[in-house]
Specification:
Two copies of one chain form a homodimer.
Chain A lengths: L6 H13 L2 H8 L4 H10 L2 H9 L3 H10 L2 H9 L3 H8 L5 H9 L3 H10 L3 H12 L5 H4 L5 E4 L4 H12 L8 E4 L5 E5 L1 H6 L17 E2 L4 H10 L4 E5 L5 E6 H19 L12 H28 L1 H6 L7 H24 L8 H29 L4 H31 L10 H23 L4
Parallel strand pairs in A: 1-2, 4-5
Antiparallel strand pairs in A: 2-3, 5-6
Helix pairs in contact in A: 3-4, 3-5, 7-9, 8-10, 14-15, 16-21, 18-20, 18-21, 19-20, 20-21
Chain lengths: ~450, ~450
């Protein structure tokens, strides 16, 4: 039932493209969903993709375009003239998709395309949408929606919905507005179906409606959609007038993007990349965090160098350097990840930072004591010196507590200053905790071995 | 507009609860959305929560219950008798929510509740749903949906939708079935609104419908929903008969859960915890990975111990132990994260594992050479020995390449054997790369310093 892209399919398709057999190609792709065709195009070279794109039926090309990956889409659009874009593509798109597509064009070409759009109403909608700031509800919404006046009857309302429905792809919710277009509430298809024809809308609409302003951030839109199980969310301007609606499919994309960004941050990847991207892009996305790691390693080396005399005398101190560094890093990442995730899904509750640090201290102390006892036992039974055993176990407890508090504190503070707390996860926190851990380890070691610098 | 839970609000509410002033309480919460009330209850003690729950208007209690966090909900249900659950709660829920709620009860109480449900049709639906395996479309779907027969006319269809709509909370899509209940397609509200009354459904329904089987995994449901921008997805049995539907709000929950699970794995947290959970739960969630880290550290110590004679002579070798370990870990996590994310969002494309490893080798070589040259320069200008400079830089290049290949290979192999590839991220890959890194570093060091074990 569901299409699954395979290597065989791609090979057959490539053969069809190079032999120029349009009928075979049409047969292979015409029945597919636009999203599947887009997936295929993402895998092809630009030239192959353009050949395939040319044979697609006219009504499908716009939909396929919307589903393409952004970089592939932009390259595609480069190969088309402004006239082709305006006439063959934009006309069939909803306003939000059209604005997305145009937003990827160079300024000049964008203006040319807009001037060539025949439907002036659509051109106006697109220009409106392009003006909203990226990352807000305004930039996410579409203009197409169905609305009725509170003073109408059910019959008038159904007639009007029928008329408006011709211009809207899918009827989600019918909004109720007053004479000034101020959003009052919504009326469900179910209510219309079950009510007598002459009843007035003002007597039957639901006013407990969730809405956002054009300036609401897309994160808040996503959180509301999830919390209240919404399928569509109306957007109003500062005066409460209905200006657009956001559907759940666009919100899902926002959620996925956010989750992926947090995940990549935690893994030390600084740009949105995929495993199929070029070597150069992948290197660029990873280099920043590796440089931070390298600098951290250099600082670590300087810390250890300060203790060289001790090391030269007691080489055994070096054995547990990786353990201390790794545990500090692990604990720090765990602590910061719980905070970052709590901030993202708003599950931190209302307790104060102090309460959180207190609980985190408890967790770290418990973890530290368990692990400290384990390592104390191990070092003692493995015939190492008692000095080493105490140095390792005591500094492990200390490092775990410091790393946990640090990992909790930093993302909370970043968040308070409106900096993305996800920055605190991954290599950043690991690196700092590495260095702190080494300092703690050697200082405790010196005092236990009775060695002075 | 949107409710925001604050500490002041909670304090006022607690006062109202302890003073027993029901009117004040009712005024504070009755206008709120069920999801907001659930958020408040999640913050209260069980006793306070039960007092507040008691004054909620009857039609709201079920909705609030559905929005509670699972552990809070289960404790709540413990305080109610089977009769109360069956009569006051279950009756108002959709079948999927009812099955979720019942699934959290102990076996015996669950059976008692089911036997007490008055609406036999609902009881049957719930029992059906409870039988599907967790994590499949069957367990995710609800039974409530609107369907019409292909042989009906538009008028018959509208009448029937009106009748069925009374039992369904929200009309998403109307499905078209044949006489055997086999799913044929869907008909949109828009099409019904725009068609003449006597037209037959069989002439106008859309057959290009996306559907899943009851056995489809929830991951596949989520991927389909996102890819095809679906709002609702019909579910059929092995014979293609329509048995339920999955709405996007439930799919969103699945997506968020999956993303959070992957994120927690990458951060070394083994259970689904929140920062407000108890110290004991938080410790339990973190201990497994810390133990792995500890064992890794112990192996690392054994590796270094083997090289003690070299270290005793050249203590400077210890300086860069943290750098080598950290860089191996960082590169490994980066490589595995890109694969894990690609597997999750199906963006790996169709290329073979060999192609991936080849590209990863290229990325690692490029990263390694850049970082290796940087560290070579640093060590040389910081007045360290040339032996140390070459040992650090050469082993850094080697470690980066090994860690990258390992980080790519492991999740791909895990995935091939149907093990969650996210296991390969976080502390696991870091720990193994730490040890490999140390081995490489010291072996290269020995050969450069001309020292033998």
């Amino acid at each position: 039932m569901q299409f699954k892209l395979t290597r065989e399919f791609l090979e057959n398709l490539r053969e069809g493209i190079s032999s120029g057999d349009k009928d075979v190609l049409a047969e292979m792709v015409n029945e597919l969903h636009a999203a599947d065709i887009a997936e295929i195009l993402d895998e092809l070279d630009l030239e192959e993709a353009i050949s395939l794109y040319r044979i697609l039926p006219g009504e499908k090309v716009s939909d396929v375009l919307v589903h393409l990956e952004e970089d592939v889409r932009d390259r595609f659009l480069e190969s088309l003239t402004a006239k082709q874009i305006a006439e063959k593509l934009i006309g069939n798109l909803e306003s939000d998709d059209a604005a997305d597509v145009l937003g990827g064009l160079p300024e000049e070409k964008m203006e040319e395309v807009i001037s060539l759009i025949r439907d002036l109403e659509q051109a106006k909608d697109i220009v409106d949408l392009l003006n909203y700031e990226e990352g807000t509800a305004g930039a996410l919404m579409a203009k197409e929606l169905i609305k009725v006046n509170e003073n109408w009857t059910v019959t008038q309302c159904v007639t009007e919905i029928r008329r408006q429905a011709e211009y809207v792809d899918q009827v989600y919710t019918t909004y109720v507005v007053d004479d000034n277009n101020k959003l009052l509430g919504r009326i469900s298809v179910k209510a219309l179906l079950l009510s007598p024809d002459t009843r007035k809308i003002s007597e039957m609409y639901a006013s407990d409606i969730k809405l956002v302003k054009t300036s609401t951030s897309e994160e808040d839109v996503a959180n509301m959609t999830q919390k209240y199980d919404l399928v569509v969310l109306p957007v109003v301007d500062e005066l409460g007038r209905l200006v657009g609606r956001i559907t759940v499919d666009d919100v899902v994309d926002v959620m996925i993007e956010e989750a992926e960004r947090d995940y990549q941050m935690a893994s030390g990847i600084s740009e949105d990349v995929e495993s199929t991207d070029s070597i150069w892009m992948l290197t660029r996305a990873r280099m920043p965090w590796l440089l931070i790691g390298l600098m951290g390693g250099v600082f670590g080396a300087q810390v250890i160098e300060r203790f060289e005399p001790a090391l030269a005398k007691y080489a055994e101190l070096a054995f547990f350097i990786p353990l201390i560094a790794a545990m500090g890093g692990n604990v720090g990442v765990q602590s910061s990840a719980i905070i970052v995730q709590g901030l993202a899904n708003k599950s931190l509750g209302v307790e104060s930072m102090f309460t959180k640090l207190k609980r985190e201290f408890g967790v770290a102390l418990l973890n530290g004591l368990i692990l400290g006892l384990l390592i104390l036992g191990y070092v003692l039974i493995s015939n190492q010196s008692r000095e080493l055993a105490f140095t390792v176990s005591i500094s492990l407890v200390a490092v775990i507590i410091v790393a946990a508090l640090f990992g909790t504190f930093v993302p909370l503070v970043l968040n308070r200053y409106k900096i993305d707390p996800a920055l605190a996860t991954g290599p950043f926190i690991t690196t700092i905790n590495d260095i702190l851990g080494l300092l703690i380890y050697f200082l405790i070691g010196l005092s236990i071995y009775g060695f002075s610098l």
